Amino acid sequence: MPKLTLDDLRKIQEKSRRMTMLREGAGKAKITVHMGTCGIAAGARDIMVAFLDEIEKKDAKDVIITTSGCAGLCSREPMATVELAGQAPVKYVDLTPEKARTIFTDHVLKGKIVMEYALALGSERTF
Amino acid sequence: MKTYRSYCMVCAGTACVSNRSFHIKEALEREIEKQGLQDEIAVVTTGCNGFCAVGPLVVVHPEGIFYQQLREEDIPYVVEEHFLKGRPVKRLMYSPPGEQTPIPKMNDIGFFKQQRLIALRNRGLIDPERIDEYIARDGYFGLAKALKMKPREIIQEIKDSGLRGRGGAGFLTGLKWELTRKAKSNGGKFVLCNADEGDPGAFMDRSIVEADPHSVIEGLIIGAYAIGANQGYIYIRNEYPLALKRLIIALEQARNYGLLGKDILGSGFDFDIKIVRGAGAFVCGEETALMASVEGRLGEPRPRPPFPTEHGIWSKPTNNNNVETWANVPSIIRRGAQWYSQIGTETSKGTKVFSLVGKINNTGLVEVPMGITLREIIYDIGGGIPHEKAFKAVQTGGPSGGCIPAELLDLPVDYESLSEAGSMMGSGGMVVLDEDTCMVDIARYFLSFTQDESCGKCTPCREGTKMMLHLLKKITEGKGTEEDLETLEQLAHEVKETSLCGLGKTAPNPVLTTLRYFRDEYEAHIKEKRCPAHVCRQLNTYRIDPDACTACGLCRKECPEDAISGGKKQPHLIDQQKCVKCGICFDVCKFEAVCID
User: Fold this and answer.
1) H or E, element range at B318
2) What would be the CATH architecture of the domain defined by B439-527?
3) Which structural domains are found in chain A, ordered by start?
4) Does the CB of B97 have a partner CB in chain A at under 8 Å?
5) Rounded to whole angstroms, how far apart are CA atoms B192 and B592?
6) Phi and psi (nearest 5°) for B586?
7) Cα–Cα distance measured from residue B594 to residue B545, given in angstroms and rounded to the nearest whole number
């Protein structure tokens, strides 16, 4: 009786898909949580946790989440930028974990910008 | 599997480990936990990343930020700035020699940009001690595909790919497999992996095993199935403790998954691999000596034919390939011969791994397509020669290869071109030499290595290399005659033609190529009693420049023969009668006042 079959190999590979894509720097969407001192003080960490939790719950394998410094608009922190492959980045302001979850479901997964939380469409790049 | 947002790949190849990379890893884990990021950022140890010159190094994904020459005290800052606040730390990034602007991303650095990875495709991207990470990057899918093919089809695929042995001689791998497949046996066949890498300055095979042991194992299983072998051996030198450890772990994991053992992936094919540890004799890299050693006998070569494909380990047909060859096999099967044969030149297909060492800025491990020029490897990837010195030659193929001079820098790197230049591909060592290198001394150095490693079984190698070494020593000491040069050349040809095995057949190559390209240096040693590179100390005359001398007295104090005189505020003077040419005065002078004539 063989211990492993081709299907088992496929399962192992699928389970690690997110890890592989991250290491190759590939992904269809990138979320940047602004984590300057202002962002952290305003609760950026909770936003980050909410996004990570969503990625795990929705099993989103191709979403990159990263941090950056202060975005320059400290009064509207916590902020995050969502960038879908091939589209202009969108900046969201005054975030709460709930808003972050909505943005994740609607914008990151379905591609629909959440206008009421958005500040602007901009072309700022963090790396 | 946990959802991380970032992976910190800490290089744990031998070079980085000796630069304390495990301490860096611990510091990273400690600081990440301190900042409460342990559920977001994972720290992974990988095999050799390749850029050994700037280790210890860490690559952060998904951004691909490349940090180099890290110290433990840098880590708290990196974790807080980059991982917490998202601001990559510029001062720890790599800047090319002579440039101020750092290059943040690994793939933008010249050293990495021009490489093409097949044998090293997983280097730095997986933890070599976790089989799941290998599988995640298509590992063992080549095997799964192969097991659904007929052995004949696999051999045809390898033949069509044009893969040639990466151990040095460049024999067609598919043809060798076919010969072993067709050989008659009255009780089994074997596949063998030669991991007895022994050239000075070469670490290709060690790095492949350290970075991706499963690629070698998968290659061996595919080969065994194609040839009809049920037992494999990996002969690895015990001086490679990290490679050995990772290999043992990998074999155990493969067995647990049933990828080794009985009925692999439900195909009905049984196969297992045994590790044989070598004691580090250079001659055991020669296949017949290696097989004698596997059997527990003295590692001595025997005449061929019969070739191992018919008469190998325990007199059974044995297919021997080296580490890099085996590591190429899974990708060829998975992606097809058509894909592989597009890379490289007409006669040399695919890529080759080289270890780039010596007088070069970017010391490290590189994998490049065949046909790339030496200039591209040395200047574009290797970053040129340090301290703005001039390039003199490159020694390819280690002690069995030869020196290729500057005028052949545009030579394409493939089996035929290197042979025509009098050198060889070898297993892939590349030692770069600059203007301060004496070519006679280099020939002496490599010959002293092969002479030392000669097993002594056949006379030409045992006595011939000894005599050649004696003559080279005479020349470097300024006692050589023109007749010695003739004898040396004649001996070199005879040892090459009459030795029993590859060791003796190739040992004269460094002498023959330096004679071919740098004969003037030999003649300067003999006729003018002068070493143009000032390396052979017995030929140097040391003199103190009275204008540059500050009368500090350091040379006078350090001279073991009291050959230097001079007082306060008086330029010093060397007594040539007493001077033994040890060169200490030259080494200690802080004002470059000691000159060599």
Assistant:
1) strand B318-322
2) Up-down Bundle (1.20)
3) 29-121 (3.40.30.10)
4) no
5) 55
6) -65, -40
7) 6
The single-letter code of the amino acid at B303 is: P
Beta carbons of A123 and A89 less than 8 angstroms apart:
yes
Give the Cα separation of B568 and B556 in Å (integer): 12
- In tens digits, chain A (127 residues) has pLDDT values of 458 899 999 999 988 888 888 888 878 899 999 988 888 899 998 999 999 999 989 888 889 998 888 878 888 889 999 999 888 889 999 999 999 999 999 999 998 999 889 887 765 544 4
* pLDDT (mean) for B171-196: 96
Block residue for tokens 């590692």:
B299
Nearest to B136 among A13, A26, A52 (CB): A13
**Cβ <8 Å between B140 and A9:** yes
B248 touches A: beta carbon within 8 Å: no
- Chain A residues whose beta carbon lies within 8 Å of the beta carbon of residue B106: none
Enter the ipTM. Answer: 0.85
Interface check for B86 against chain A (CB to CB < 8 A): the answer is yes
**Mean pLDDT, residues B48-65 taken together:** 93
d(CA B526, CA B553): 35
- Which residue is listed with tokens 């509207």? A76
Give the closest of B87, B256, B266 to A2, CB-based.
B266
The model's pLDDT over B358-398, given as tens digits with 9 standing for 90+, comes to 999 999 999 999 999 999 999 999 999 999 999 999 999 88
Contact criterion met (CB < 8 Å) for A66 and B63 = yes
For the domain made up of B6-109, give the CATH fold. Answer: Glutaredoxin (3.40.30)
Confirm or reject CATH 3.10.20.600 for domain B351-434, answering yes or no: yes
- Nearest CB neighbour to B1, from listed A19, A26, A67: A19
What residues of A are in contact with residue B6 (Cβ under 8 Å)? 22, 66
Q: What is the pTM of this model?
A: 0.92
CB contact under 8 A, B136 and A17: yes
The alpha carbon dihedral of A35, A41, A44, A45 has a sign of positive
The answer to whether the CB atoms of A55 and B4 lie below 8 A apart is no
Q: Do B86 and A23 touch (CB under 8 A)?
A: no
Chain B residue with minimal CA distance to A30?
Answer: B62
Architecture, CATH, for domain B540-596: 2-Layer Sandwich (3.30)
Nearest CA in chain A to B131: A12
Q: Is B80 exposed, middle or buried (CB count within 10 Å of its CB: 0-12, 13-18, 19+)?
A: middle
Residue entry with tokens 């008659």 = B184
d(CA B274, CA B367): 28
- Asked if B64 and A25 come within 8 Å (Cβ–Cβ), the reply is yes
Which of A3, A18, A19 minimises the CB distance to B257?
Answer: A3
Q: Please, are residues B224 and B184 in contact by the beta-carbon 8 Å criterion?
A: no
User: Tokens representing B359?
Assistant: 């007088």
Interface touch B258/A66, C-beta < 8 Å: no
For residue A29, the chain B residues in CB contact (below 8 A) are none
Q: Is B7 on the interface with A (CB under 8 A)?
A: yes
DSSP code string of B24-68: HHHHHHHHHHHTT-TTTEEEEEES--S-GGG-S-EEEETTTEEE-
Residue with tokens 């000075």: B200
Cβ atoms of residues B52 and B363 within 8 Å: yes
